[in-house]
Design goal:
The protein is α+β, with helices and mostly antiparallel strands. It contains 20 helices and 18 strands. Helix 5 runs antiparallel to helix 6 and helix 13 crosses helix 17.
């Protein structure tokens, strides 16, 4: 007979919620953590959703730190808890520990009755992590015997067994070069725009020199300064009672004053233990992902040969930085839609421009089908030809992505600009009825109900993680859309997207395939065209450019 599964739920009862709450509220904030909570008022299932971000400044301080954080979260606790993870999954509990841009993240979803047990186990293993050199070989053998059921890519295999699988590590280093060209332009675009991103070759170089002692020495420093951002949704009284005692969360069935008086378990384990090395972050140490600000009226372009010289495809990413974060001087206090908090600023406050956001979304919706029709069907540039939105930590824009053997990237860039000239006529000729139809379609998309607690929580967590906290974003944007006029859409296009628009900010990523090697040599040897600037060194370019502010900058200013 199989062993007893401690994660099988025994209590599937639903707890009534006296007050229907539409948005999360911040119920507790200390120097160690910040807690957000929203009861389930829509799905009425005995399930819970937990998200915990561990903000660790050291995690992205260098390529070595980024790789070590990746190894830590990919190797443990999941592999230490391999059997527990399987038992939890059988019982309807799922969890994942993964790195992110500020440290690492723990996510759990499933039946809430035994989520306490799983949460205690995961947090305990994080706190008690110990590097054991000999166990990597054992885990490797188990995974291989199981047919690598739990690992889907060779990169995951490398991260799980970095000290006993050097061949796989080298193989993955080579496999990066075989990514499709459209994947490479996406990588280069993120590397150029994200101030904290490290080049893949630097990370793999660091990975190849790692020893078990490096990870053992790194972890105490990683956790030495930590802040935990928590979000809990749909918890029943059984788990909530634990979370109150565990110092993680509170529910609608528990009075806030009662919850505040209880010592939280996570803080006890990580910060208040007798031998704990974890200390709270000082205000100056909170991380904020920041994005490079492109110059108005200037076109940047980055040409590169495809990493796989046998690949005949070339690719283009034509990025237009459009909707931006606005900063204004203010001594006033503005309230977020979450009734629990206000954000105070004596110098700068970040403002999320709703109208520009919806104008960008509407423009992307209106242009999506014409772009595909012209670039893919009419001109037949390649199977991958699309227009979509891009959002980099609140800095929004449009991007065209084309992969082709027919044209080199410089010509593809010209075809995109030619399409924008054609699309300008489309906008001017759009009837009022067609405009209203597109607006209605976008409104319907925004008003579509969440299918489950994970979808709902993903939206709210996005607002929390970016620091925007506009929990009623959909309702506000729908209201803005209903007031929108066609002339405003045209003005937005003329200011930010139209060819040679004075406010336009463009970044063209060009990866040249084997068929277009000669064209690559030509473009790197020629002088940049007027109003253009070639990026020859990505890291130098990032250091030379100003950065947009981050909504996360207000973390330390949040008040109950």
């Amino acid at each position: 007979l199989p062993n007893h599964n401690i994660f099988i739920p025994s209590d599937l009862s639903l707890k009534s919620v006296e007050e229907k709450v539409s948005f999360p509220s911040m119920l507790r904030k200390t120097a160690f953590s910040r807690l957000w909570y929203k009861p389930d008022t829509m799905f009425f299932t005995p399930k819970a959703y937990i998200k915990m971000d561990f903000h660790c400044p050291l995690s992205q301080s260098s390529p070595e730190s980024a790789v070590l954080t990746d190894v830590f979260t990919s190797d443990d606790p999941p592999n230490l808890l391999l059997l527990a993870a399987y038992d939890a999954q059988v019982a309807g509990l799922y969890y994942i520990v993964k790195p992110n841009d500020t440290g690492f993240q723990v996510t759990m979803v499933g039946f809430n009755d035994k989520m306490r047990t799983l949460l205690e186990t995961v947090i305990g293993k994080i706190a008690e992590f110990e590097v054991k050199v000999d166990r990597f070989s054992v885990i490797k053998a188990v995974i291989f015997q199981a047919g690598t059921v739990f690992l889907s890519t060779s990169y995951e295999l490398i991260k799980a067994f970095p000290f006993c699988h050097q061949e796989a590590m080298i193989k993955e280093h080579e496999n990066f070069k075989f990514r499709q060209p459209y994947q490479q332009v996406l990588y280069y675009c993120s590397l150029i725009l994200d101030d904290q991103a490290w080049p893949w070759d630097e990370e793999f170089s660091a990975l190849s020199h790692l020893e078990p002692s490096d990870l053992g020495n790194f972890l105490p420093h990683l956790m030495a300064k930590t802040f935990i951002e928590c979000y809990f949704a749909g918890l029943s009284s059984a788990l909530l009672s634990f979370l109150l005692i565990a110092k993680i969360s509170i529910s609608g069935n528990i009075e806030p004053n009662e919850a505040k008086s209880v010592i939280k378990h996570v803080e006890d384990v990580l910060f208040n233990a007798p031998i704990s090395a974890c200390k709270p972050l000082s205000p100056s140490q909170h991380l904020a992902k920041r994005i490079v600000k492109l110059e108005k009226g200037l076109r940047y372009y980055y040409p590169a040969m495809c990493l796989n010289n046998q690949d005949e495809n070339s690719a283009l990413l034509h990025y237009i930085q459009a909707c931006l974060l606005y900063l204004f001087l203010s001594e006033n206090t503005f309230n977020t839609q979450c009734n629990a908090i206000s954000i105070f600023s004596s110098l700068q406050t970040h403002q999320d421009n709703v109208k520009q956001n919806v104008l960008l979304q509407l423009l992307a919706l209106v242009g999506k089908q014409p772009a595909f029709h012209q670039l893919r069907s009419v001109e037949q540039l390649g199977y991958i030809a699309l227009l979509r939105q891009r959002n980099d930590s609140g800095v929004r824009g449009l991007q065209f992505i084309i992969q082709s053997t027919v044209k080199d990237p410089a010509n593809l860039d010209a075809r995109v600009e030619n399409f924008l000239k054609m699309f300008e006529d489309t906008l001017y000729q759009m009837s009022d009825a067609e405009f209203k139809s597109n607006v209605s379609a976008l409104i319907d998309m925004k008003l579509e109900k969440y299918k489950n607690i994970r979808e709902e929580s993903a939206f709210f967590w996005g607002e929390i993680s970016e620091g925007t906290l506009k929990f009623d974003r959909k309702e506000v944007e729908v209201a803005a859309l209903r007031e929108l006029k066609k002339e405003e859409l045209i003005d937005f296009f003329n200011d930010h997207v139209k060819v040679n628009a004075p406010q336009k900010k463009v970044l063209s990523i060009q990866v040249y395939g084997g068929l277009h090697a000669a064209e690559y040599q030509t473009i790197v040897q020629n002088a940049p065209p007027p109003q253009s600037c070639e990026i020859t060194d990505i890291c130098s370019f990032r250091r030379s450019r100003p950065l947009y502010g981050s909504f996360r900058g207000a973390v330390g200013q949040m008040k109950l």
